[in-house]
Amino acid sequence: RTLEKLQAVAEEIEWTTGSCVKIVQADFTKEDIYDHIKEKLEGLEIGILVNNVGMLPSLLPSHFLNTPGEIQSLIHCNVTSVV
Known about the structure:
The protein is mostly helical. The chain has helices at residues 3-17, 34-41, 68-80. It has one domain (3-79). It contains three helices and no strands. It is elongated and about 50 Å long.
């Protein structure tokens, strides 16, 4: 999602529920994002946390050893972020 789409959804949630929404934009294909997220959430009382992240690998057949960067990004995004 783009920041603009996230902001639009946040505004809609705030308008319909009266709740406060905080957006934290992060690239979950990277492994060094969690300090940034922690900093942005510091001191907040979180009622609901939505982790709306995930990606599909290329649908084209490829050799596993020829795509280490893509595989690592996929693992960071789809596995590490859940943990």
